[in-house]
Amino acid sequence: MDLFETSARSGDAAPLAPKAAKALSAAIRNLAGWDRAYPESAISHQGAWIVAGRKGLARGVAVGFPVGKRPRWTSALKGAEKSAPGATVLVLEGTHESLVALREALPFLQPRPTGKTPSFGFGDRTGMATPGHLLALRGSGFFPNLAQQSIREMTRTQRSPAEVLDAAVFGALQSGHLTGFGADADHLKTLDDVDRCAEAGFVSFTLDAIEKVIDAAPRMNDADLEQAYQKILAEVPAAKGWEKKYSGKTFTFEKKVAVRMEGRAFREAIVKYGRAIPYWIEMDKRVRQKTKGRACEIEIAVDETGAVTTGAEHVFIARELAERGMTFQGFAPRFVGEFEKGVDYKGERKILQDSVIEHAVLARAHGGYKISVHSGSDKFSIYAMIAKATEGRFHLKTAGTSWMEAVRVIARKDPALFREMCDHVRGQFAKDRASYHISGDPAKVPAPLTLQDADLERVYVVEDAGRQIMHVTYGSAFTAFRDRIFALLAKEEDLYTACLQKHLSRHVKGLKIRGARKATVKA
Ligand SMILES: [Zn+2]
Predict the structure, then answer these.
(1) What percentage of residues in the chain have a pLDDT greater than 90?
(2) What is the pLDDT of residues 502-514, one digit of tens each?
(3) Distances in Å between the alpha carbon of 13 and those of 24, 34, 61, 140, 179?
(4) What is the mean pLDDT of residues 438-445?
């Protein structure tokens, strides 16, 4: 059989024909001693072929080339050499070292910025969700931000930025994904957060200056607001010029959006974000410094502030950052209404629409960055509106909803583990819910021990109240059951992938970016 030899074609990365991919992956599974090898991963690249596989939870990658003709690009790869008919096969363990070497050797495994393309952010807390994510996006026109993880999520799942990125890189390899992906270090709040994620290789940096934001500004009485304003003037050198630039002014955009910076609107914006402006600049500088010329992009996130982001605040932030030479690719406002985790939007959709249109107009007027929608999963009733109102210039972030598909698999395939896990996290709910916008209440949801197997999924994955409990307690679930969860997901990998594809495809279909693009051309 000369399959080993002929699969190593000379051009850049391309999938093998399905028949060859199947035969080669079956042969490699035996040769490498893996439990499975993924036919969809089989590609040829510059004189070699690549196949990814797994043994239990351990990842593996095989790279083969004709005997005596080892391609230069493989020189940094360290693996066990095995002989196959006409070829040498390098079997690599999917360690951090191997995945970094592969990432450096193969351009399609290097994360890159999302740019202006409509993009979809996927948080993957299990490190096994990427294949389902990529299947859901296939043919949609969205650019995937695969490794999207906040520092909070990494802490709760006990993973490092490097592990998060490794999982996405392997997932892309496993899926034979050759068209690029991004990596979003989400909600970075400190310079140390920036350093850790820059070093790991992330390329999207979502900067959250919440620690410098004075969130109470909109709730202050006039006297307190004035006092806080005077304090900002004394603290922030640039603040002295802001009164002249903004106070009492009305800014008009595209003849339809008028942003008034009168009286309180001006003072609230300055008090709330005056100290954040220099901090964002400092974080941005740190990103440039630590990524050393790597193509990167920045998102400004204020979605976790306590009050709805006003047009005045948006204008103030956008202008002040631009004036200091900072460019950013995304802006995440705090929107009106409730973006609770894992359930549909709660609020007045017409008011939300007006505000999305306003932010989109302001984004176009200040450089054309995308509007970023956080906690964006499961908001089916507003997707079409978001795509249209932003004219397709948006980014949507999802994370917990993919964890919920893992929860679905556990409920279906291991009811005993599910009951133990569910019982445990119900006890952690009061503590775990603190950092989230949710309304679920364990007292109103039947305990798992009282439910039939067949009802577990309905009560805790499908229905909102139970869904929210499982959604926010993932950290507690990981802490107590991590190994058992991962072992089950590895065993039920195909089901997990199918569930993710099904659930996230609904999001992608609802967002209709193709229609949104047409609308842009017409307007
Ligand atoms: Zn957010």
Answers:
(1) 94
(2) 999 999 999 987 6
(3) 16, 24, 15, 21, 10
(4) 84
3-state secondary structure 370-419: EEEECCCCCCCCCHHHHHHHCCCCEEEEECHHHHHHHHHHHHHHCHHHHH
How far, in Å, is the centroid of ligand 1 from the Cα of 302?
Answer: 8
> Model confidence over 139-181: pLDDT tens digits?
999 999 999 999 999 999 999 999 999 999 999 999 999 999 9
CA of 346 to the centre of ligand 1 (A): 17
| pLDDT at residue 395, as a whole number | 98
CB 303 within 8 Å of CB 314? no
Mean pLDDT taken over the chain: 95
Distance, in Å, from the CA atom of 13 to the CA atom of 102, rounded to the nearest integer, reads: 13
CA 216 / ligand 1 centre spacing (Å): 19
**Distance between first and last Cα of the chain:** 59
**469 to each of 2, 345, 379, 431, 506, how far by Cα in Å?**
54, 17, 18, 11, 22
The verdict on pTM exceeding 0.85 is yes
What is the Cβ-side half-sphere exposure of residue 98, based on CA atoms within 13 angstroms? 19
User: Which is nearest to 121 in space by CA: 395, 339, 370?
Assistant: 395
Query: 233-289: per-residue pLDDT in tens?
Result: 999 999 999 999 999 999 999 998 999 999 899 999 999 999 999 999 999 999 999
Give the span between the Cα atoms of 398 and 402, in whole angstroms. Answer: 8
Instruction: Please identify every residue whose CB atom is under 5 Å from ligand 1, which is an ion.
Output: 303, 374
Cα–Cα distances in angstroms (integers) from residue 147 to residues 125, 128, 180, 235, in the given order: 9, 11, 12, 37
Residues across the chain:
523
Round the CA-based radius of gyration of the chain to a whole number and report it.
Answer: 25
Q: Give yes or no for residue 92 having a pLDDT over 50.
A: yes
Q: For residue 512, how many other CB atoms are within 10 A of its CB? A: 18
**Nearest 5°: phi and psi at 366?**
-120, 35
User: What digits encode the pLDDT tens for the residues 462-484?
Assistant: 999 999 999 999 999 999 999 99
Bin 378: left if φ > 0, else alpha if -120 < ψ < 50, else beta: left
Ligand 1 centroid–CA 150 distance in Å is 9
- Across 28-142, where does the E strand assignment appear? 36-37, 43-45, 48-55, 58-66, 80-84, 87-93, 119-122
Question: How crowded is residue 129: how many other Cβ atoms within 10 Å of its Cβ?
Answer: 27
Q: State the distance from the centre of ligand 1 to the C-alpha of 305, rounded, in angstroms.
A: 9
Q: Using the mean position of ligand 1's atoms as its centre, give its distance from the Cα of residue 226 in Å.
A: 30
Cα–Cα distance measured from residue 196 to residue 237, given in angstroms and rounded to the nearest whole number = 30
- Hey, which residues are catalytic here? 186, 299
